[in-house]
Amino acid sequence: MKSPWNILLVTPLFLLLPLRTSASPASDDSPSTRNPNGHTCLEKLFLKTTCYLVIEMFGPDIIKLLSTDMNADVVCHTLKFCKQDPGQPLCHLYPLPKEAWKFTLEKARQIVKKSPALKYSRSSADICSLPFLAKICQKIKLAIKNSVPFKDVDSDKYSVFPTLRGYHWRGRDCNDSNKMAYPGRRPDNWDVHEDSNCNGIWGVDPKDGIPYEKKFCEGSQPRGIILLGDSAGAHFHISPEWITASQMSLKSFVNLPTALTNELNWPQISGATGFLDSISGIKEKSIYLRLRKRNHCNHRDYQNISRNGASSQNLDRFIESLSRDPLLDHPAIIIYAMIGNDVCNGKADPVPEMTTPKKLYSSVMKTLKYLNSHLPNGSHVILYGLPNGTFLWDNLHNRYYPLGQLNKDVTYAHFYSFLNCLQVSPCHSWMSSNKTLRNLTSERAKQLSNTLKNIATSQKFTNFDLFYADFDFQEVTEEWQKRGGEPWQLIEPVDGFHPNEVALLLLADRLWKKVELHWPQVLGKENPFNPQIEQVFGDQGGH
Ligand SMILES: [Ca+2]
Ligand SMILES: [Ca+2]
Ligand SMILES: [Ca+2]
């Protein structure tokens, strides 16, 4: 995806797609029968507005529209979420309606014209044109534009608010009125009076008068984890419950506001910086949680500097949101993981848009120079390679898309070509029936990985050492199969593109083991005081 904002604009499209199936007789938990003032909607403004939006979108008028045998394609075009430019083919997901397309579309427009509920969305494809969403849209746009927390009183780039680039993305600020107190810094005066680095360790041991931070953390070489990534690193995820009619109820949308204000990402359960227990129940932990387990002094020292649509070519637009003071802060492990957008885009001809090895070389060198002047001495940078994305088509094309399961009429091959037709595919070049194109994309991805490998082996920097690691999706798939799983279970079902939570945690596991084996100095040593830290400070203030 080109712009992070566009991805939000595509969301209504995803939410519209199931309308056809939701037109079946309303069940008791159908959102259309619920009152918008129901208890799930009361808590927060954005929760309320989202619930309201859902009611609007799945309201009785659309149901009426659909009950006249108009499918989601008609609705999508009527509301202009789907566009047909002059001379362009008509994009549709489902088989075309029985009546002539133009006639059906005209009929739908007549119904919409009479409907007061639909008049807002009719004029524009931007859901932010809905008056009750304007405010929240403004907030989201700001946070996205700068990739720094929206709510940050002391402007140290750390927040006490979870979403809108808050602590779901980087460690929680333990004092939001003191810009010299934030996760990852070297303790100020051994944190005798205050927890200056937010790791939950502070004060003086009354038995011997030694500050706890000095006693437990000095010499343990604390370090943070920072991901420079794209939507995969931020864990882009659209819940299938949002779009699968059979599971649809207002309860399904409870996590939608959180997701929207995180740009549809779930960094709090991602492979690199996740700090919450996995939803999938897989036992593997994120890189951050492993670093924390190894040394409890690392508590809260994580930053997920990722963006939807990020690539080597646009990282310079948000790298400044990274927060690390070369003198005041502890060293960090930086994972550079631009794994797809240098070869992926939604263009009708995606090839000319791909990054060349030469362009990659120069932009990565620029990034590394930036890091060298902003990272504390003793840091580590790992360049992560690109995957071979042919597994997407190979494992998914003849499977049913979540929306197509009910009527057995939409496969991933259909879904992919629908996205390509609308030119909104996150990766036309791998999500395509064109085998030559898929192979060409893999070939380019391999060249780019080799470029990263060459940089890692030939370049030296004063403030960090540099490594290269392959993106081992093939190995992760084999590991998953050994456990009795199927390869398609590792892909996000709704977008048919991103690695899902299980895949991300298995990839993190593999990377951790590789680093531990070959470059153990990157991870540091086990802190022998961990049990005492637990004893004195419990959960250290949690996350
Ligand atoms: Ca702050
Ligand atoms: Ca602060
Ligand atoms: Ca501390």
From TrEMBL:
Pfam families, A to Z: Lipase_GDSL (PF00657), Saposin (PF20825)
Record-linked CDD domains: acyloxyacyl_hydrolase_like
MF terms (GO), sorted A to Z: acyloxyacyl hydrolase activity; calcium ion binding
UniProt cross-references to Gene3D superfamilies, sorted A to Z: Saposin-like, SGNH hydrolase
Signal peptide coordinates: 1-23
Record keywords, A-Z: Disulfide bond, Signal
GO biological process: lipopolysaccharide catabolic process; negative regulation of inflammatory response
Residue ranges annotated for the Saposin B-type domain, each copy included: 46-86
Identification of the protein by name: Acyloxyacyl hydrolase
Species of the source: Panthera leo
Gene (name only): AOAH
